[in-house]
Amino acid sequence: MTITANTSYDPTSHILVVNAREPLLWILQEQRTAFTENPHRPHPLPKRGDELFLYATGTALGSRKEAGRLIGNATAVGDVINLADPVQFDGTAYSQGLDLRIHGVAPRAKGVIMAGLKDHLEIISNKVNWGPALRSATVALPRRDADLIRRDLQPLLESPESVIDQYRAGQEALELPVV
To answer: Residue 122 — very low, low, confident or very high, per pLDDT cuts 50/70/90?
Structure first.
């Protein structure tokens, strides 16, 4: 599966940070994502044509001890809209939505481990305490970082339909390395 950026909209690339299992499954199944309304957001939200790399934290993958991974690639197929019926996860209302076209997802234990990539990314200035760099719902990427992520993630991707059951099964189905 080949990742290509959609150049018809002069795209920007982002990391979409997913912090919990339920939203991760919803994103993969529905090919949508949602955001809370936040006027003080540190990074701009994606817009139509933008490229998104799906980053699942260890908690989203099933365990706080599991390494966070870049697991997929998608394109925003529209702009962020206000939802008439906000999506609810763990008591939080997500009132803004974005439709996605997910191009590929890595099998459950095969994503790019962020800890191994962090030293090479411009968006992570503090290489020792790098977690805060990914505390926003989205993180805009410079072209060099997007190219590096794309290069490492592309060989791991399969069709979303072929791997989603692995994410549904969670940690029970696989023994994953702990970082």
So the answer is: confident
Task: For tokens 């957001």, name the residue.
Answer: 41
In this predicted structure, what is the pLDDT of residue 173? Answer: 42
Tell me the pTM.
Answer: 0.85
7-163 is classed CATH 2.60.40.1080: no
Residue 153 clears pLDDT 60, i.e. is over it:
yes
117 is written with which tokens? 């990539």
In this prediction, residues 90-94 reach a mean pLDDT of 91
